[in-house]
Design goal:
Two copies of one chain form a homodimer.
Chain A lengths: L1 E7 L2 E8 L2 E5 L1 E5 L11 H6 L5 E3 L1 H6 L3 H6 L3 H5 L5 E3 L3 H6 L5 E2 L4 E4 L6 E4 L1 H11 L3 E3 L11 H26 L10 E6 L5 H12 L5 E4 L8 H11 L9 E3 L5 H10 L3 E3 L2 H7 L2 E4 L2 E4 L19 H5 L2 H9 L3 H27 L3 H13 L3
Parallel strand pairs in A: 4-5, 4-14, 5-6, 6-10, 10-11, 11-12, 12-13, 13-14
Antiparallel strand pairs in A: 1-2, 2-3, 7-8, 8-9, 15-16
């Protein structure tokens, strides 16, 4: 299912075949939290933005509109109109970061809905059932994403529980995939490595979960406040224990520099809200650095956001117009700027793949790593 | 410049040639207040929505980003990316409805900006200068749109002043169009009929302003709170005094029923924020009436908003998905619903034109006037 086409040192250029289409890796997943990209971008726009795979949030969709309803409507693909691969997270991250009054036990987590305060229980089985109802291509394991900083003892206890949860996830998804009325009976389960910033816990965890021979593995619990150097150190520690022939997904990462560093270390898949969040604040990625449209100097700038960009925004609109929309609070600004930043990320991955194919990735990285993440 | 292709009683099927393209009438102008359609719709989307002519607001653009800047950037067409006809209102309506602490004198109006409170003066000359800077296809005369209700005496005084202002507008636009550095030296001026709900004042005003032989005339100051029957009565009174060979524009109107009634009386052009405002509240126009997506019954409705609609929203998305976006506060809802409602209005005009050509407008009106405006 995952084929490595070529490598450059640890970096891999791969092809990940799924029941909903093939993902060329390294790839960036575009985040559609509540089955919609923030900023007024639709599944049909994503095609134009060179998106290969969409990510939706289990927690949000369970609470609203409800996964049973989405199943009744034919699953996330029919619901959103996106016919390519969809990855759903497990809900774990949101339960631990968004939901107040949570209570963690061996069985699972009880928490209050952030919408209406209703008490909800979610464990590995419930998470799999919800993701099965959503009919995503890839379901993520239900895990505890420990906060940063976390003590060694707590992390060890939590990480071991997350492994036990993973075994329960695997059993439950196998059961669900065997049922006749399951929407996507080929749903794939990815395991998630945890262990905070402790190499030995990370490695032990990875050794354990790799035994399950799942179709993919993620590194979770990074980019939660620790310095980038710590993140790179953990990736370096874990990568040797990740199955080589499975896609490797670094969750919630990151800046263009983070992505270049992680690809260099052997990561294949990414997701991050950064392109859309930065766009909302007027921060737009370009081939020469990040521009801030709040800056008055763009008021009369008739050039596009990035002269080297082929996105619909850059093809049609000037910096001056976009700045006016930003200052006037027009929703059109959000749409145009989110589209640009998503296109930037999706084409950054395209360039990375191109350079891996030509064995020039290291040079591309060296030439661009500072440029792409600097504020100009 | 305005050619009547055929008529059915008082209703007219016409062609209005402008320096930026021909408008098939009856036509509905799509409102882009601050040089952007509300809800995240761009000038390029408007083409797909069968929009023929865009309306921008002089008052808003004068205050932000400033008409001098827009002139420096090449005018509204370059600024927005819309290359078809653009009508700018005069700023009068907004000065009288939005700006606090206004003071009306013969010379013009002093008011406070709704953005930063700055004192601003606008008279007929200033309004023409601003609209000339914006480079719109059609400039509207600077008028006082009296509130409803207004006394006969005040209306008479105001209406006479508005006529004097129109003469000053005409002199100023002629002067501006003769200058070499004017963006659009063929800018057209439309006069505006005022006189509140008083037939004799309306008629006297229309008689006076028609003498100027302007390229078009509008009826202003209606749809400001008076009953629809009063509006129709005023249109009936004024129409016989409007030049037959010039386009007639009914400002700020209205519901599908209002439009059918006004076309029947001889109106050619309309504008209204109703399609976008209704969309924002979840009220969507269909061929069988207005549906309210807040209604729980649409939660699992897999059909499109309107099975008879070819708009991008109806071609791609279900009522269930749109309702989910509405309930989740996703901006994508605004975009998709505004696009649908604008397309509905633009294609309603297309149907009206078709029936006028086939001499079946009266029957079309009778069969649809209640259906299209009813809430189902």
């Amino acid at each position: 299912m995952f084929k490595i086409l070529c490598t450059e040192h640890n970096a891999r250029r791969g092809e990940f075949q799924t029941p909903h289409g093939t993902v060329q890796t390294p790839a960036f997943m575009n985040v559609a939290t509540s089955a919609a990209i923030k900023g007024g971008v639709s599944a049909f726009d994503l095609k134009e933005l060179k998106c290969q795979i969409m990510l939706c949030n289990t927690y949000h969709l369970h609470i609203r509109p409800g996964d049973s309803l989405i199943k009744q409507l034919g699953g996330l693909h029919k619901f959103t109109g996106w016919d390519g691969p969809i990855l759903t997270d497990s809900g774990g991250f949101q339960v631990f970061s968004l939901a107040p009054l949570r209570k963690i036990e061996e069985e699972g987590v009880t928490f209050s809905s952030h919408v209406d305060g209703k008490r909800i229980f979610m464990g590995p089985e419930e998470s799999m059932q919800i993701q099965s109802n959503l009919g995503s291509t890839i379901a993520m394991a239900f895990d505890e994403c420990v906060e940063n900083p976390a003590s060694y003892d707590y992390t060890k206890k939590s990480s071991e529980r997350t492994i036990r949860w993973l075994y329960r996830c695997k059993a439950e998804i196998d059961r669900l995939n065997s049922l006749e009325d399951t929407l996507n009976r080929q749903q794939l389960l990815f395991g998630i490595n945890q262990g905070s910033i402790y190499e030995d816990l990370r490695i032990e965890n990875m050794k354990q979960i790799s035994k399950l021979d799942l179709p993919g593995y993620a590194i979770g619990g990074l980019a939660v406040g620790e310095p980038a150097e710590v993140m790179y150190r953990i990736i370096d520690a874990v990568i040797p224990y990740m199955p080589e022939n499975k896609p490797r997904y670094l969750m919630g990462v990151g800046t263009p520099a983070n992505i270049l560093e992680a690809v260099d270390r052997g990561i294949d898949i990414f997701d991050c809200v950064m392109p859309s969040r930065n766009a909302r604040h007027g921060h737009l990625f370009t081939s020469v650095g990040i521009i801030n449209l709040n800056n008055k100097k763009y008021e009369s700038d008739t050039g596009p956001i990035d002269p080297n960009c082929d996105c619909p925004t850059c093809q049609n609109h000037s910096r001056a117009y976009l700045r006016h929309l930003l200052k006037s609070g027009e929703l059109l600004f959000l749409r145009l700027s989110v589209m640009h930043n998503l296109y930037f990320y999706n084409t950054l991955m395209e360039r990375i793949r191109f350079h891996l194919e030509n064995n020039t990735f290291k040079r591309f990285k060296a030439e661009n790593i500072e440029v792409l993440s600097r504020r100009i």
